[in-house]
Amino acid sequence: MGYEIDKSDEQWRQELSPAEYHVLREAGTEPAFTGEYNHTKTTGVYQCRACGAELFRSDTKFESHCGWPSFFDPADSSAVELLEDRSHGMVRTEVRCARCGSHLGHVFRGEGYPTPTDERYCINSVSLKLAPEEG
Known about the structure:
This protein is mostly beta strands. It has 2 helices and 9 strands. One of its GO terms (molecular function) is metal ion binding.
């Protein structure tokens, strides 16, 4: 599938840190409770760390106590791409940036969180960049 932002592995390796590359380009996962945005309450927009696309807004972030930043809805449904992930002996739904194809995390449904969507977008901090709201 073609993405608006299409770079070679070599280009991505030059632009991203090893940890960012592992998560964003190799679908890795940062260790639970270690991410920069796990407990962040700052108002702003969460962008893709690889391409800068707007992915999530702080008003959809909630405390899920799972160890990673959690959101109940993307900023725009076309901002993310959802793919079936059958790795690690599970069936999950992978969340990728629709603009550059970078791995962000997974979305889980029906867990009973008191959110408007009953969805938990479990996103790696290292795949995001927070642009704080001015004011």
